[in-house]
Amino acid sequence: MFSSKFAWGGAWMGVAVLTLAAPFCAGAAQSAERDPAPRVASDPHRDARIGDILKQASPERIQKTIETLVSFNNRSTISPQDEDAIRAGKGVGAAREWIKAEFERYSKECGGCLEVKTDTFTEQPVARIPKPTEITNVYAVLRGGDPKEADRIVLVTGHYDSRNSDTLNVTDPAPGANDDASGTAVSLECARILSKASTEKKFPATIIFLAVAGEEQGLNGSKHFAEMAKQQGWKIEAVLNNDIVGGNRGAGQDAGRLRVFSEGLPTVATDAEIKRIRSLGGESDSPSRELARYVADIGRSYNAGVKPLLIFRLDRFLRGGDHYSFNQQGFAAVRFTEFREDFNHQHQTPRTENGIEYGDLAKFVDFDYVTHVAQLNAATLASLASAPGAPGNVKILTKELDNDTTLTWEASPGAAAYEVVWRSTSAPDWEYVQTFDGTRATLQISKDNVIFGVRAVDAAGHRSLPVVPEPER
Ligand SMILES: [Zn+2]
């Protein structure tokens, strides 16, 4: 159902005047649609079922997942993965087998609803991989229940490999509790609660739960997986990469916030596309950034216990992560990372020096925080997998100079209506929204002064990702 905290209080004249108004009551979608007053885009949408699903996320389960992954001692991608090591419960192979068994267990509990798969390949020697090494990504597919929507995919990932102070060390402990057993635990917990929920009612689109290896050696696992997805023509609409989401217990941490990193200019943009982006002022409207704004919308709509903090940057300063592998193949992908990292607790061989305890140990992880991160991920995945696909071929008509703006788009299957969202060119997030029935909208707003997007909405109010229009001459 729709609701709104604010109503339009003045004509658009470059500066909007907003006045507080009584909220639309639940069930007011029809009247809201006819209301000529655009509302701010912080109008939250809540699906009670998704709210209930989030309550299933368990800090105890997440703690057990993280502690189990730590128990494999050293999950370096180049650590032993032969039968003996797996039997001894040590190394990356043992971790891989355990993750696979977890996915299979969830699948058993949902009547075989998950397809559990591996993506295995041999990486030839490179800087951080001294000899040919088999790398395995493990994933579970929750196939969409609507044949028309099932080829649309949303994906959550974390990396299960770890490292200590020496990238090539495979014997000393490399607990990797925060980096990135926490992200792996998010992927697993989303698989558990969303697969369970699907036994009552399937999500229309497909959700993939992924755990990759090779991140610490050079994003090798995610690179292979994203390339495979691209080659096979998978329609991945959103990738949520969780890396260092443990909420390290330490000074300066903010357990109420989660950073969301997204690229500005698309990695794959050609020179001609960069030129067009520059001329249209589209530097902050990559598909990945629209996904980040979608996550912000989810953060306003559901009480996940953690609020997204959008960072308009590909990743942390001069550092990288698995979402970039997906960006390189043209997929929308964002990275989630805790508010404040503690560098004594990542990529460190456990030890105490000068009274400082180093090491990425489970005791520094805030399991409640990881649970909240899992809830935000699950709400995003469930919303996108429930929503219609984004409208296609969205255009802004520019044949004649005009102070009004006309937008057109192609109908999206399953859409009950469409929302045009817009914001001032200097605003970080969508500010206003107006609902339309058809596939054409004229607004008395100058395209010179704002950025528009169009999204599809189903009868229950699930929103697609917004699409920024291309000019049509
Ligand atoms: Zn990491």
Explain what you see.
- The strands form 5 sheets. The protein has an 8-stranded mixed beta sheet with strand order 4-5-7-6-8-11-9-10, sandwiched between helices.
- α3 crosses α6 and α6 (177-198) packs across α12.
- It is α/β, with parallel strands linked by helices and 473 residues long.
- It has helices at 29-34, 48-54, 59-71, 83-88, 92-109, 177-198, 215-218, 220-231, 271-280, 287-301, 323-327, 367-386, and strands at residues 6-8, 18-20, 39-40, 114-123, 133-142, 152-159, 206-212, 235-242, 257-261, 307-311, 333-338, 351-353, 356-358, 392-397, 405-410, 417-424, 432-436, 440-443, 450-457, 470-472.
- α6 (177-198) links the parallel β6 and β7.
- The chain binds zinc ion.
- Zinc ion is lined by residues 159, 179-180, 215, 243-244.
How large is the share of residues in beta strands? 15-25%
| Gyration radius over CA | 23 Å
What is the count of helical runs? 12
Structural class estimated from helices and strands: alpha/beta
Measured between the Cα atoms of the first and last residue, the distance is 37 Å
Bound molecules: zinc ion
Please outline the major beta sheet: 8 strands, mixed
Biggest sheet: strand arrangement: 4-5-7-6-8-11-9-10
| Overall pLDDT level | 92
Indicate the low-confidence ranges by residue numbers.
1-36
Q: Which of globular, elongated, flat, extended, rod-shaped describes the shape?
A: globular
Task: Please state the oligomeric state of the protein chains shown.
Answer: single chain
Number of strands: 20
Q: How helix-rich are the residues, as a percent range?
A: 25-40%
